[in-house]
Each structure stands twice: as C-alpha cells, then as structure tokens.
Amino acid sequence: MIFKTYKRAFIGTSIRGGAVTITSLKDSKIEKYKVFDSATEFVIGKSANVATTTKTASAATTAAETTTTEAQTTTKANESASAGWTITISGINSKDINFTDADAAKMPATEITVSNKKNDGTAVEQKWTGISLKTILDFYGANDYDGVKVEASDGSISDLEMATVSDPGTIIGLKLDGQTLSKTDGPVQLIVKSQLTKSLIKGIIFLFPQFQCKL
Questions:
Q1: Average pLDDT, the chain
Q2: 38: containing domain
C-alpha cells in the first residue's frame, strides 16, 4: 500500500476495507484523501459550508419536530374541548334520560358571577356560563319533585332542596370566564351561587330528581 505525505493538520482518519480515508484541514477547507494501492482520490469542500449545512438541517429538523408537537398539542386540546359528555337524569317518568352537550346547545344559556374564596381567605370573581338546572329539568318534563341529588364521577354528592333548584343562580356550568372547561375541571360543573359549599362539583354524571311519594 502506498502512502503520500501531506503537510496538513490531520483531524481524523478512518479505515474501511482496503482503503484509508484521511481528513485534513487546510485554509478552512476539509480535504479527504482516500489512499488506495496506486492512486489518491480526494474530495474538497469548505468547512464553513459543511457546518452551515449541518446547522441548517438541524434547525429544520428541530422546527419540524416543534411544529409536530404543537400540532399534536392543539389536536389534543381541541379533542378535549369538543369531546361529548353525557349526564344521566334518572327517574323522570321512571326512565333514564341522557342529557348531552348537543342537548345543552339547544337550550338558553345563562351567565352568573360568583365569588370563590381561596384557602388563604382571598376571593376570586368567576364568570360562569351554563344552563339553569331548573331549565334542564323542565325541558325533560320533570315535575312533582322536591329536590335533586347531584352525583359526580368521583362519587361526590350534593343534595339540593327545591328552593335551590329553582334559583336562577343554580346552573350546570359549561364555561369559566369564557373558556371551555379542561378535562381536569370538567367537562361540566354544578354551580350554586347561593350555597358555594354545595358548588363546584366537577364531572357531573347523574341528576336524581327526588320525586314526592304519592299516597
């Protein structure tokens, strides 16, 4: 095997098969010499261009990954916001009725403002948009009941007397400050303006009107 001597600052070598590749640096250029038994083959390219190309490709890859991540995040957010929900209203005419987001869209919305106290004693004003509980029950023909039991997906239960049910400030909250509730806070909440201790029950899944016993 024949080797030639080059007055270069060698920065790397590699051996593959019967050839030796020698990489050297001269005048900001990368020279790769592939030395064979009887011939020398070399490829010259500017190191600056190589570095720029590498950085550009890396930046493009990063941008593509970022765009993909943002798209996935947006898709998940949209799926969460648009995901359908169902609340079972049990006992009206001895049946179970499914009250859905599609049904809610057909009903008149109402807005209420409540003052929610934090653990540190400070209060935060919240603007809720939703459907009056009385409106929902009237829509499905509920009558002769004297209260409603509200149950959440975590097993939490709130018992509402008839006066509370009829109060316009008692709603099934769909939006907080104009924003659709997140999966963690929603998809819907019970809001009782007059009795916040019975309010803010998340993930409502059942409404049980308490019907009067007829003798």
A1: 74
A2: 9-79
DSSP H helix total and E strand total for the chain: 4, 15
- Is residue 44 located within the same domain as residue 93? no
CA distance 16 to 34: 10
Residue pLDDT, tens place only, 120-129? 878 889 999 9
In a domain, 2, yes or no: no
| Cβ neighbours, 10 Å, residue 125 | 9
Tens of pLDDT, residues 85-112: 999 999 998 999 999 999 999 999 999 9
148 and 70 in a common domain? no
Q: Between the CA of residue 156 and those of 19, 130, 195, 198, 199, what are the distances in Å?
A: 75, 20, 16, 10, 11
**Strand order of the sheet with strand 86-92?**
95-100, 86-92, 204-211, 145-152, 157-161
Q: Rounded to whole angstroms, how far apart are CA atoms 6 and 168?
A: 91
Contact of 188 with 171, CB cutoff 8 Å = no
Per-residue confidence (pLDDT) for residue 50, from 0 to 100: 39
In terms of phi and psi (left: phi > 0; alpha: psi -120 to 50; beta: otherwise), the region of 27 is left
Using the predicted structure, report yes or no on whether residue 18 has a pLDDT greater than 60.
Answer: no
First to last CA, the chain: 112
% of the chain surpassing 90 pLDDT: 46
Whether residue 180 contacts residue 81, with contact meaning beta carbons closer than 8 Å, is answered with yes
Phi-psi group of 155: left, alpha or beta (phi > 0 → left; psi -120 to 50 → alpha; rest → beta): left
